[in-house]
Amino acid sequence: MRTRTLTRTLTRTLSALLAGAALLSACATHQPATQQGYYANPSDAASFGTIDAIKVVTVESGNSGAGAVAGGVIGALLGNQIGSGGGRTAATVAGAVGGAVVGNNVESGRNQGARQQYQISVRMDNGDYRIVHQDSVDKLRVGNRVRLVDGRLYRN
């Protein structure tokens, strides 16, 4: 009987943790791909164009939610070892919530936080307009002819 109650409690706790993880991952910020825009011919490895603008933008690093999930599971397992009956359930839930918070903070600490990138606007020869994000601009300037290769711009 006690094993069945423990199993039910653990199942409910893990279900709540998974639901919370799904909510956290839905709220996570995802950064745009290295480049944006439409490819006239997807098989092109390189495209040519002219730089219209270069500006510095701040990019936030997002959390995947994995730290919160792992922390929640560990916290629930540790909390489940404390007390019995209703106290054990409360300790399991408190451990899951506390572990999720700690796990999320640990993951946040590992991320770089905000960082700066260059947002480069390019008018392509085929008429497309692309925005490329790069960590550096090297010798790129507005008006330069460039080649786009694998999401990175190079002077032509």
Provide key terms for this protein.
single chain; 156 residues; alpha+beta; OB fold (Dihydrolipoamide Acetyltransferase, E2P); 2 domains; rod-shaped
Describe the protein's architecture and organization.
The protein is of the alpha+beta class and 156 residues long. The chain folds into two domains: 1-30 and 63-110, no CATH class; 32-62 and 113-156, OB fold (Dihydrolipoamide Acetyltransferase, E2P), CATH 2.40.50. Helices cover 42% and strands 26% of the residues. The chain is built from three helices and six strands. The protein has helices at residues 2-27, 66-79, 86-110; strands spanning 35-36, 46-59, 115-124, 129-134, 145-149, 152-155. A six-stranded antiparallel sheet has the order 1-4-3-2-5-6, with no helix packed on it. Strand 5 and strand 6 form a beta hairpin. Mean pLDDT is 75; it is low at 29-39.
Number of domains: 2
DSSP strand count: 6
Strand order of the largest sheet: 1-4-3-2-5-6
Give the termini distance in whole angstroms. Answer: 75 Å
> What's the overall geometry?
rod-shaped
Which spans have pLDDT < 50 for at least 5 consecutive residues?
29-39
Estimated share of beta-strand residues: 25-35%
SSE diagram, text form:
Elements: H1 2-27, E1 35-36, E2 46-59, H2 66-79, H3 86-110, E3 115-124, E4 129-134, E5 145-149, E6 152-155
Helix pairs in contact: 1-2, 1-3, 2-3
